[in-house]
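Please fill in the sequence for the structure shown.

STRUCTURE ENCODING:
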C-alpha cells in the first residue's frame, strides 16, 4: 500500500467507537474528523486520537456522575 493511498482513506475508518453521549457531542461538529480538525488534530495520528478522546471525555463529563470527597474535590466515578 503506497503512502498516497493512506492519505486518501476516509477518516471514518480511523475513528473509535463512541458512547451515545459522545455521539451527541460529535453531532455538533458534524463528524469525528471535523471534531479533531477543530482542535488542530489529525485522525491518522494515534497521539492526536488519544488527545481528541480526552477532550471528548471532558466535554461529556456529567456532574451528576461525580461525588465530592471530604476536601471538596470532585472525584469522577469509574476512574
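FILLED IN BY: designer on duty
SEQUENCE:
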Amino acid at each position: 500500500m503506497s503512502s498516497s493511498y493512506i492519505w486518501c482513506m476516509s477518516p471514518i475508518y480511523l475513528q473509535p467507537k463512541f458512547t451515545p453521549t459522545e455521539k451527541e457531542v460529535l453531532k455538533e461538529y458534524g463528524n469525528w474528523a471535523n471534531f479533531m480538525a477543530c482542535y488542530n488534530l489529525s485522525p491518522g495520528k494515534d497521539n492526536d486520537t488519544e488527545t481528541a478522546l480526552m477532550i471528548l471525555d471532558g466535554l461529556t463529563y456529567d456532574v451528576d456522575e461525580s461525588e465530592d470527597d471530604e476536601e471538596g474535590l470532585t472525584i469522577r466515578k469509574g476512574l
